[in-house]
Design brief:
By secondary structure, the protein is mostly helical. The protein has two domains: 268 residues, MFS general substrate transporter like domains (Growth Hormone, Chain: A, Up-down Bundle), CATH 1.20.1250.20; 59 residues, no CATH class. The chain contains 19 helices and no strands. Its main location: membrane. It is a multi-pass membrane protein. Belongs to the major facilitator superfamily. Sugar transporter (TC 2.A.1.1) family. InterPro entries: MFS_dom, MFS_sugar_transport-like, MFS_trans_sf, Myo-inositol_Transporter, Sugar/inositol_transpt, Sugar_transporter_CS.
Length: 436
């Protein structure tokens, strides 16, 4: 509880809409900070489409799976470091300055990636973006919660989650928009600098979190901000509750210490807190281990493996995944207070298990039941096929093995992984194998 007691009910979103109309300043605070969530979602989703064109343009990336994975994963590595540093910055310099610093990282990372001449520079830009993602992922919801009226705090914090999934959907849309523009992937990655710039200037005009100001003994500034958030007759009560909450927090720190390890040790030795800590960790780990990040990072690649080889088609079909992800966030926002967190989590986990099982089954079936490639099938080529084909592997070599061989025997400039395009070129156009 940041500022007063949190009373959650099914009317929170109705109250959110009503209060936002009465006090648009509240919505300005939430949306300005929430752009950090939008950037978080955009930068995690944009690489899925950009990677397709990076591979096309830079042969070194196309030939190295390790390099491809490094380009994708360095943002995650940067986010881990950014989240750790962000916690210290939030306490030391405040939430507002932390968001401003994250915007600088976002902007620098976007510019570096857009202008990158080599894969190494792309990776460097991804690290900068990752640092920004790590800081924004923890600072934006913290700022929103501390600068929101307690009656609608849950709804406004949920807004940050919606902007994350909305940012992912926006990333796929922008990827699709730039498929026919010169410098495709550079535009895709560079566009992220624009919302970072917008948020930077918006945050310059917004105040610091009232809770952080109160903790730094700047009570007059904290009260001035509360007057913009709450009606005049509620300000004194909220200021009193804020003071009690901060004093309680300071007292707890005096008992357990201010160090990270001291806090963890105290939390782990307290039964009630330990149960909550375990539940929170399990939920976070399960959320990551369900594989949604993998799907979001590689959705177009997965679609191409399913047989839709065109980059633009793969991106268009990937919009379905990101769109459903955003819709799921909207649904959860409306039902989280009516149905409860536990029930929604169980339902969503069941859905995740079912659909991941279906996805795995489809890929397994495609690899096991794909048509065989053997002596009989290669008679059309006078037994002359790609170097990766091993005649000793008759009845074991499958169509999927051909696609994974990456020898370019079955490829042409229009449809990179379709063996049907090869048949068309050879038999209908009478092209030599080297041009197919």
């Amino acid at each position: 509880m940041e500022v007063g007691p949190l009373k959650e009910d099914s009317s929170q979103f109705k109250n959110c809409f009503k209060l936002s109309l009465e006090r648009p300043y509240i919505l300005k605070l939430a949306f300005s900070a929430g752009i950090g969530g939008l950037l978080f979602g955009y930068d995690t989703g944009v690489i899925s489409g950009a990677l397709l064109y990076i591979r096309d343009e830079i042969g070194q990336v196309e030939r190295s799976t390790v390099l491809q994975e490094t380009i994708v994963s360095m943002a995650v590595a940067g986010a881990i470091l950014g989240a750790g540093v962000g916690g210290w910055m939030n306490d030391r310099f405040g939430r507002r300055l932390s968001i401003l610093f994250a915007d600088v990282l976002f902007f620098v990372g976007a510019v570096v990636m857009a202008a990158a001449p080599t894969p190494g520079i792309i990776i460097l830009g991804r690290i900068f973006v990752g640092l920004g993602v790590g800081m924004a992922s923890m600072t934006a919801p913290l700022y929103i919660s501390e600068a929101s009226p307690h009656k609608i705090r849950g709804a406004l914090v949920s807004l940050n989650g919606l902007l994350i999934t909305g940012g992912q959907f926006l990333a796929y849309l922008i990827n699709l928009a730039f498929t026919r523009v010169n410098g495709t992937w550079r535009w895709m990655l560079g566009v992220a600098g624009l919302p970072a710039l917008i948020q930077f200037f918006l945050m310059l005009m917004l105040p610091e979190s009232p809770r952080w100001l109160y903790r730094k003994d700047r009570k007059g500034e904290a009260e001035a901000i509360l007057r913009k958030i709450y009606p005049e007759d509620e300000v004194s009560r909220e200021l009193e509750l804020l003071g009690k909450s901060v004093e309680s927090e300071v007292a707890d720190e005096g008992t357990i210490g201010v160090g990270f390890f001291a806090r963890v040790k105290k939390a782990w030795t307290t039964r009630l807190v330990r149960r909550g800590l375990i539940a929170g960790i399990i939920c976070q780990v399960a959320q990551q281990f369900c594989g949604i990040n993998t799907v979001m990072y590689y959705a177009p690649t997965i679609v191409q493996l399913a047989g839709y080889s065109s980059n633009s088609t793969a991106l268009a079909l990937s919009l379905i995944t990101s769109g459903l992800n955003a819709i799921g966030s909207i649904v959860s926002m409306f039902f989280v207070d009516r149905s409860g967190r536990r029930r929604l989590m169980i339902i969503s986990l069941c859905g995740i298990i079912i659909w991941l099982g279906i996805l795995s089954s489809v890929f397994y079936a495609s690899s096991v039941k794909s048509p065989a490639v053997g002596f009989t099938e290669t008679q059309h080529f006078s037994n002359f096929t790609c170097p990766a084909y091993n005649p000793a592997a008759i009845n074991k070599w499958k169509c999927v093995d051909c696609l994974n061989a990456q020898c370019s025997f079955c490829a042409n400039s229009h449809n990179k992984v379709s063996i049907h395009a090869y048949y068309f070129d050879i038999y209908n156009l009478n092209l030599p194998r080297e041009l197919a």
